[in-house]
Design a protein that fits this description.
This protein is of the alpha/beta class. It is built from eleven helices and 14 strands. α6 links the parallel β5 and β6.
């Protein structure tokens, strides 16, 4: 079992990822400044050590690694709103890029001869406006948003530090993450909420219009195409990544998605079908930085990690999201 530092561990994806790590017996230290995190899940698991602190505090990072003999880092901490990044690029480069640099420097200072293993939470936004699908890891990296560029800068640094300081790292590029723990221990709850499925469910519940950004894409119904991966499948990929590194695996970069694409309107219709309620719609222009189609090729993750997503069919994702929404509004 390993001593693991989880940065941004109070966030949506990270808290779901804690489930399999706890089940596997790993010792977890969560560091989060709670800017957009939620302590509810962590407080219900006293075996998790929680430290309220900022990734940019280099002394704190080194002190935590020493205090808990950290052997691996799961790096989730970051800002992740594409549209917001166009208005606040300075925040995204400070947190996503400089925050990653601060972490890497702390890892080297903590243990120069053998820094901890690193699993990094990246994004398909590093590919930019992709015309070819499905997306392979070998595709050109041409991000079109400050968010995507800040993540790509972090990837470059991780690769360079890994090569120079001789530690192994896994970079995981997420596609659209959705869904919730089927047992309702935790679910999708952002402030503000920007994700398609929870916003559509909210629109169904409140009958306030759901906004579709662009119906002039070259798809079957004019709406954009997206690949959704269940958050629990994403969590299992993190555990497999750590096990791969602990067993001597080398550095790599992997896409994580379902491998299937659905238009926004197809997703809306599936939610309506499960609820038996029509969702009021409003059409707006395309958002800056939104590509037409994002579909993931998962071949590399399956071959390298033996990853086999079991929850990532759209009906399951929607069902779990609806269950969480009912739980929250009982």
């Amino acid at each position: 079992m390993a001593n693991i530092l989880v940065t941004g561990g109070a966030g949506y994806i990270a808290t779901h990822a804690l489930l399999p790590f706890l089940d596997a017996g790993h010792r977890i230290v969560v560091l989060d400044n709670l800017y957009r995190g939620n302590l509810d899940f962590i407080q219900r698991h006293p075996q998790i050590v929680f430290i309220c602190g900022d990734l940019l505090d280099s002394k704190l990072m080194v002190d935590v690694m020493h205090a808990y003999s950290i052997e691996a880092v799961l790096h989730y901490a970051g800002l992740a709103y594409v549209e917001e990044s166009h208005y606040k690029p300075e925040d995204y480069y400070r947190v996503n890029t400089f925050g990653t640099l601060t972490l890497l420097q702390a890892m080297i200072e903590y243990r120069p001869a053998s820094p901890p293993y690193l699993v990094f939470s990246s994004s398909c936004a590093v590919y930019g406006d992709i015309s070819g699908v499905p997306v392979l890891e070998s595709f050109d990296l041409l991000p079109v948003s400050p968010y995507g560029r800040s993540k790509l800068c972090a990837e470059w640094m991780i690769s360079d530090f890994s090569n120079t300081h001789k530690f192994s790292s896994i970079i995981l590029r997420y596609f659209n993450v959705a869904g919730s723990d089927p047992r309702n221990q935790i679910g999708e709850c952002h402030q503000p909420e920007t994700h398609l499925i929870p916003l559509a469910i909210e629109a169904a519940r409140t009958q306030c219009p759901f906004t579709i950004y662009g119906i002039d894409y070259p798809s079957s119904d004019g709406s954009a195409i997206r690949d959704f991966v269940h958050v629990l499948d994403l969590a299992s990929a993190h555990l497999l990544s750590l096990e791969y590194l602990l067993n001597g695996g080398g550095s790599s970069c992997l896409n994580l998605g379902s491998g299937s694409g659905f238009t926004v309107l197809e997703i809306i219709r599936k939610i309506e079908s499960q609820l038996g309620i029509k969702i009021p719609l409003k059409v707006s222009k395309r958002r800056v930085g939104d590509p037409f189609a994002l579909i993931c090729d998962t071949t590399k993750a399956k071959m390298l990690l033996g990853w086999n997503p079991v929850y990532s069919n759209l009906d399951q994702i929607i069902s779990d999201s609806l269950s969480w929404d009912r739980y929250c509004h009982e």
